[in-house]
C-alpha cells in the first residue's frame, strides 16, 4: 500500500498559477492535485473568463471551487515561508539557485514538513517573468529536451506533484529550525528596505524596477526567521526615519 | 547537463493509445513525448474525428503527423518484445504482475536497452479493458489516491515518460539475454495454441473470449526467446494437425 504521508505536509503546499489563460489547463491542474492528494490551489490574475469556465465546468471539483484568486504574487504567497518558481529556461541569466526537479523534491519536502510552501507556475505562453521570479527563493526545472523545453501547464504541474509524492517516503525532517519568517513579514521588510534605498538615492529612477527586484531577491536569500525579520524591520525603519527627517529641512 | 541517453533506447519505446477520443489529449501526449525525447506514437482505433483534428491542429508536430494508426492491439505491438499496460485500478482482480511506476521504470529501461517495448494507455473514459490487458506482459500504475485514482490521459503519459527519463542515468543493462520473441511470433504461437485448444474441446463455446485471453496471458508469461517460440510453434502445429486429422473420419 502506498502511503501519501501526513495530511499536514500535503496541505502545506500551495499550487500557484500565475496568469493562467486556458480553463482546460486550470481544470487539469485541479485534477492532478486531487489525484495526488493536494488541495490548495491559488490563481494570480487569471484570465477572467478562463477561471469562470473552469470553476463552472461540469464535474468541477470541490478543490476547483475552493480555489482562491489574488491580484498579485505577494498576496498569494503571504502565508508561505518559501516560494519556489518553476522555469523551463536554463540558459537565461538567472539570479536564483536552480535545481532539477529530482533534486528539488527532497528540499521541498523538507520545507513542507515545517511550513507552508508556494510552488509557482507561469502562464502557458510566457512562463514566469523576471519580476515574478524575484518573489521566489529558488527555482526548479523539469528536465526537458533542449529542442523542446516548454511543457504543457497541466502536465508540468502533474509531474511536479508526482515527484513530490514519489519522494515522500524516506523523507526526513531537516532538523528543527527557528520558524522562518512568513512572506508577509518578508514583504514588509522588503518594502521598508526599498523605501530606504529610494530615500537614500541608491535606487535611481532609471532602474527602479530592476533595483527593486534585486532587493527582493537579496532579502529572500537571507532566509530570515520571524524574530530576525522583525528585528531588522525595526532597524531599517529607524534608519529610514532618520534619513527622511534629515533630508527635509 | 542532463543526459537523455542513447537515441536507440528512446526510439525503442512505442507509446500506444488505445481508442483515444479527445484530440487535445492526443496532442498533449505528442507534446510530452517531444519534451522528453520520445518519437514513436501509435494509436489503436482512435475516434476518427479526434485523430484528424489532432493531426491537423495548428502547430501539430512532425511527431504527431508521423503517428501510426492500427485497428487492433496485436497489429500495433507486432514489432515489440514486451507490452506493458497502464492501469489506475488496484483492487480489481488482476491476472498480471502489477508494479508501481517507480519500480516499473528500471524494468522498462532494461527492456528498452534490448528491444522495442510498447506502453499501452487506455481510453479516457474506460482505461484498458480486460481484453486489452490480455495482450500485456505486465502492468504499471501511477500511485494516485484511492479517492481519485483516474488520471487525465495527457498527464498520465507525461508522468510515465518523465519517470523513464528521470531514471535513465545509472540504469544498467540487464545482462545479455537471448533476444526475446517478437509479438508477431508470439501472436502466431497464441493463435496456433488457441486453435489447438478449440480443436481439442478445451475451449468451450460459452467461455471463448475469457479462455482466449487466458491463453494469451499464459504465453506472454513464458517470456520465450525467438528460437524457442519457433520451436514451440512447430510442435503445436504438429499436435494440432494430428488432432484435427483424427477427429475427422
Can you count the helices of chain A? 11
Shape of chain A: globular
Specify the helix fraction band of chain A. Answer: 40-55%
The largest β sheet of chain A comes out as: 7 strands, parallel
What is the topology, as strand order, of the major beta sheet of chain A?
A: 3-2-1-6-4-7-5
Count the E strands of chain A: 7
- Name the assembly state: homodimer
Terminal CA distance of chain A reads 73 Å
Radius of gyration of chain A, taken over Cα atoms and rounded to an integer in Å = 19 Å
SSE-based structural type of chain A: alpha/beta
Topology:
Two copies of one chain form a homodimer.
Chain A: H1 7-11, E1 13-18, H2 23-36, E2 40-44, H3 48-56, H4 62-65, E3 68-70, H5 73-76, E4 82-86, E5 98-100, H6 101-112, E6 117-121, H7 130-133, E7 138-141, H8 153-168, H9 183-200, H10 208-221, H11 226-247
Parallel strand pairs in A: 1-2, 1-6, 2-3, 4-6, 4-7, 5-7
Helix pairs in contact in A: 2-3, 2-8, 6-8, 9-10, 9-11
Amino acid at each position: 500500500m502506498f502511503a501519501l504521508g501526513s495530511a499536514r505536509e500535503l496541505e502545506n503546499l500551495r499550487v500557484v498559477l500565475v496568469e493562467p489563460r486556458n480553463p482546460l489547463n486550470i481544470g487539469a491542474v485541479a485534477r492532478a492535485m486531487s489525484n495526488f492528494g493536494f488541495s490548495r490551489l491559488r490563481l494570480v490574475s487569471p484570465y477572467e473568463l478562463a477561471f469562470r469556465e473552469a470553476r463552472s465546468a461540469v464535474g468541477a471539483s470541490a478543490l476547483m471551487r475552493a480555489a482562491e484568486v489574488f491580484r498579485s504574487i505577494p498576496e498569494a504567497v503571504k502565508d508561505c515561508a518559501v516560494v519556489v518558481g518553476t522555469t523551463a529556461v536554463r540558459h537565461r541569466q538567472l539570479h536564483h539557485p536552480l535545481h532539477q526537479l529530482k533534486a528539488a523534491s527532497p528540499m521541498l519536502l523538507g520545507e513542507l514538513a515545517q511550513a507552508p510552501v508556494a510552488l509557482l507556475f507561469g502562464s502557458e505562453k510566457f512562463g514566469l517573468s523576471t519580476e515574478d521570479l524575484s518573489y521566489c527563493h529558488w527555482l526548479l526545472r523539469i528536465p526537458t529536451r533542449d529542442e523542446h523545453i516548454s511543457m504543457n501547464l497541466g502536465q508540468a504541474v502533474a509531474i511536479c506533484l508526482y515527484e513530490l509524492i514519489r519522494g515522500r517516503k524516506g523523507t526526513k525532517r531537516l532538523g528543527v529550525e527557528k520558524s522562518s519568517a512568513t512572506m508577509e513579514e518578508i514583504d514588509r521588510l522588503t518594502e521598508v528596505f526599498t523605501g530606504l534605498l529610494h530615500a537614500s538615492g541608491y535606487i535611481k529612477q532609471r532602474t527602479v524596477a530592476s533595483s527593486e527586484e534585486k532587493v527582493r531577491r537579496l532579502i529572500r536569500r537571507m532566509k530570515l526567521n520571524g524574530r530576525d525579520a522583525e528585528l531588522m524591520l525595526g532597524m531599517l525603519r529607524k534608519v529610514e526615519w532618520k534619513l527622511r527627517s534629515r533630508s527635509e529641512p
